[in-house]
Every structure is written in structure tokens, then in C-alpha cells.
Amino acid sequence: MLSRIRRCLFIALANLTQRKMRLLVALAGTGVPIVLLALQIASLNAARIQVTRLYDDFTFDLVLVPYTYQFLYAGGTFDRVRFNQAHAVPGVADIFGLNVDTNRWTDLETMRSSSLLLIGIDEQPGFVRDPEMAQGLGSLTGTRAVLIDEFSSSDYGKLANGTEANISDQAVEIAGNYQLGLFFYADGSAIARNTDFPQLSGRDPRTVSIGLVQLENGADAGVVKAALAGALPNDVRVLTKSELIAQERTFFLTTKPLGIVLSTSMWIAFGVGAVILWQVLSADIVNRVKEFATMKAMGFSQSFVMGVGLAQASFLALGSFLPAIAIAAVILATIERLTHLPTALTPELSANVLAIVLVMCMLAAFSAVRRIARAAPAELYR
Hints:
This protein is α+β, with helices and mostly antiparallel strands. The chain is 51% helix and 18% strand. It folds into 2 domains: 2-50 and 257-381, no CATH class; 68-233, no CATH class. Strands 3-4-8-5-7-6 form a 6-stranded mixed barrel. A hairpin with a 2-residue loop joins strand 6 (164-167) and strand 7. Helix 2 packs across helix 11 (347-368) and helix 8 packs across helix 11. The mean pLDDT is 86.
């Protein structure tokens, strides 16, 4: 059995290396869909991560959201009195108020207006995981002070400390910076204290968008979640952190236009890649059809001859994978530098791309070698 496999692999490799120029053309043709697929998978994965990036900056176990909540950008509000009710539930250590609102940022030098995601947070450093954001909280001493996202659009103008701007005709002054990059939602973002948030947003100060809940040491998240759900009115929902992130990612990728485009693009890339691979493999088999026919005439079984074709497909996939993935890595690194999206090609993503490429190659190879399987040796010479 092993000798048959070795012979099959040897013949496949000899077939491919017989004509070097044809091999290079085949490798280039196979590499194109690999690059395309890697770009799409990395972009989709980056979108999944970035759409919930804000939650990574905070430490919490459970979350209180409005009953109608679907995702961060349009989640609604609920009464902050629910925090007091939740504090009475055993296992709850503390609750942190997080507000979000769509707004406008105006650069006073150019008077250019851009979309803004305004974030309001309680002054509780124990909830803030991001060091820059935690340090910036100490700078929010005046009612006009805000922190600004360094990854905001260039239309925001200067982002240095002390720079003045307007948020919905309200004068503000930049007191610090942080790095977030939520351009899926707006051109940039700014953070204000929740005590100043109502003035900047026009929101009722008694309401809040999200409540982040920290549990006492040793408390069971499932038990406390059930207790909160039973103690609070039905105008709020209780979710774990993983449930919140999963819901937002699913909503973005299946409901929001950009998410649908990214998801669809990946499947299109898979289909286009499979077609390109089929064309490359089919052309290679057609060019060697007499060689395969000779093998069948010499007594090699149909499964052996088809195995040679499948082995050639695997060699082409593996041979083109490294240069293709290197090209994709350079492109993705450039995209990450320009957009601040986490598109870097990680080992895990590379392994996923390789697995998908091998599946594509096998599907294309099975389709391409059917001509050999269906025809008798004599018919292949016509």
C-alpha cells in the first residue's frame, strides 16, 4: 500500500516537473485564488474582531442591555435605576455605565463636519482595561473635556491635547487620546464622562445604553445571570460577555450591508478560486491525457491514475501556497497600517486558508480527472 502511494506521488511530481515553464504557469494560476481567498478571510475576520473592539477595553462578566438591543450602534436605552436593583442581587460586585450616541464632530479650523460615535463612561477605573483610556480618565476634569480616538478620520483635524472642536455645536477640548478605530460605525469616536454625556448628546441623564457587570470572586456567572433576569423588569436583558459579542458579530455579518458584503465576498472568492483551480488542473490533465492513457493501458488501475491527478493537485496547492501567502501577508500588513484593522495574517488564519485551499484543490481535481475516469484508453487518443 505504501509503495503504491509513493509511486503515485513520484509520478505526480515527475509529471509536474517535466516542463518547468508549464509548472511555473500552473503555480501562478493556483496562487491567484489563494491570495484572493486569504485577503477575504483576513478581512472578514478583522471585521468580526473590530465590530466588538470597544468591549475589549473593559473588564466585565455580564451585561445589562435594553430589551430591544441588537448591536452597539442602535441599542436603545434603559433607566439607570436598574443598576440599583441589580446591585441587590447576590454575586454582583459593581456595575459600570456605558453610553453610546451618534453625533457630529466639527473641526473649528476648517469647519468640516464628520460623523462621530460619542461614548460616555462612568468614572470607575477598575472597569477600564485599556491603559491609555484609564490614564485619560484622569484628564477629564472639566465639563468640556473629551478623549479622542487617534484612529479618527483626518477630517477631524488636529488631535493634540488642548485642541478645541465642536460636538453638535457644543464646545469641547481634547484632553487625551486612545486607540480604537470603530470606522464601521462612524468617522471617529470620542469619550466623555457620563456626567457630561447628556449635555453633549441631548440624552436624558437618567438613562444608560449598557450596564457592564462585574461579579464577586467565586460567583457563578450562570447563576447570577439567572438571578438578575428574575429580579429585573422585562425592559432589560441580561447577557454574558461571550453572548453579547456573539450577538453583535452575528448581527453585523448577517444584517448590516457591509457585513453581508464581506461574508458574500468570501464565498465568491471560494467559488472563483475553485473555478480557476479547475481550469488550471483541467488544462494540465488535457495536456497529459496521452500519458494518463498510457498508464491505464499498461495496467494501472483507474483509482491509481486518478490518485496521480489528485496528487498533482495537492502538489500544486502546496507549491503555490507559500509564495501566495507571503504576497497576501504583505498586502494585509499594508491594509492594517492604512486602516488600523487587525488584518495581519496570523498562523491560525494561514492554517485555515491552507485547509480551505486543499479542499478547493480536491474538489477541482475530482472534477478535472473525471475525463480520465470516464474514458477508455483507446478513446483518449482520438
